[in-house]
């Protein structure tokens, strides 16, 4: 495995302002600091880069003056910084969203459709910049990052179109002289918390339906990748979304108090979160005190099953797309690959051969197929899963080790890995790896593999390959997951419901009913009409 990290001039570090600098000086320094920092990103439109949070339409610093340093995982160099906000800023952001709600929720659905379509167009027009930004802060290769931007924009387009279709119901009444009407109304202020693995798409998947429904939002983007969120907010403002409708609180070490306030505030009516199961459970508990509606898209541990009647070429390609997308850092990545014994050796050697050709490195460079993990800390879990599996009897077909970093700093690069003969007792069979590790386990019968596949507490996605139509139905129905890929490794689209069962979460995002999670139904019974039955 070759690590391709071409030598390049060190990126300039943005100037840091110490807390001891007098406030008047900080104010004077800021515009120059922002523009010199923005040039580090190399965007065509540097004004998309924001180094401040957004409250009530104003770009603002934290009250404390503290900052969060954001680094490029491919180079370990600082890209810039954003404010370390806390409780006070969160309260202000909630207040701003609440103030903006009455007028935004009263706009016509057609108006919300039009501004969201404008935002969709702006995201397409700026796809070079938005893609580059995703690569810089997340590490995924540029082509994949631009793919994320297209995926991200598709949520805005889909929900712009859904804004005008939030139909209610007329239900025949059980009593004379009365009529039943069910209307849908926006739920109110929505708190949105998102992960770093999709710096843009996880935001639009939530902001799209929220704004389309007429809600206003407070976004807490991940500390690792805040710039994509801030750029989206800038484009939203250019699209005509009024001040206070979108607010952004950036935070890292104050995350507990920010999360608690977002969940416990009486003003916030819904929490929408994507991230780990452990954090989802915490937020669910905190939201109970105000009976908030929640959408929780939590962890997975996807089984990927190859039966002996599968098209092996297609199964190998699908395993690559499914397992190694985002260097294995997606909730729907295959985590356990089960292959039936008669095709096991063939599948394993073809997969290993394809993976050995990957080019790992800085995602901005030509020819790179796979980028780094989000940070050096993420490497630790992958290393642990590899060494645990090997100790228990697995063999390494490709990869299996951390690659050196370009500048001697702790490395975020892990060699794409294929392990075979991974026993069912290996840690990775019950823990999500979140890294570029394909773990192969042999099975004999359909019954056995379904038992193995379903033997986890989580159930987000599952995949299988078979050309037997009866088996396709049987297995699709028996897999205990929210989403099944039958003869495909890619399932994610704005037009379908995305979400899990068991401890993978609550609610569905996207699809024809995705907007309903941001609305509440109200029954109006009209009586005394004097019209008979
Ligand atoms: C996730 O990893 O949480 C989302 C993956 C996707 O939308 O495909």
What does this structure look like?
The protein is of the alpha/beta class and 533 residues long. The protein is 37% helix and 20% strand. The protein contains 14 helices and 24 strands. A seven-stranded mixed β-sheet has the order 16-17-18-14-13-20-21, with helices on both faces. α10 (312-324) links the parallel β13 (302-306) and β14. α2 (87-106) runs parallel beside α8. It is globular and about 75 Å long. The termini are far apart. The model is unreliable at 1-33 (pLDDT under 50). It binds succinic acid. Succinic acid (SIN) binds at residues 197-198, 274, 297, 330-332, 492.
List keywords for this structure.
binds succinic acid; alpha/beta; 6-stranded mixed β-sheet; 533 residues; 7-stranded mixed β-sheet; 14 helices; 24 strands; globular
Cα end-to-end separation: 77 Å
Q: Could you give the count of β-strands? A: 24
Count of helix runs: 14
Which ligands, by name, code or SMILES, are bound?
Answer: succinic acid
Summarize the amount of helix as a percent range: 25-40%
Which ranges are low-confidence, i.e. pLDDT below 50, for 5 or more consecutive residues? 1-33
Q: What share of the residues does DSSP label as strand, in percent?
A: 15-25%
Q: Give me the Rg, rounded.
A: 24 Å
Main sheet characteristics? 7 strands, mixed
By oligomeric state, this entry counts as: single chain
Q: Indicate the overall shape.
A: globular
Strand order of the largest sheet: 16-17-18-14-13-20-21
- Secondary structure class reads alpha/beta
Mean pLDDT: 93
GO molecular function, one term: succinate-semialdehyde dehydrogenase (NAD+) activity
Protein name: Succinate-semialdehyde dehydrogenase
GO cellular component, one term: cytoplasm
Active site: 297
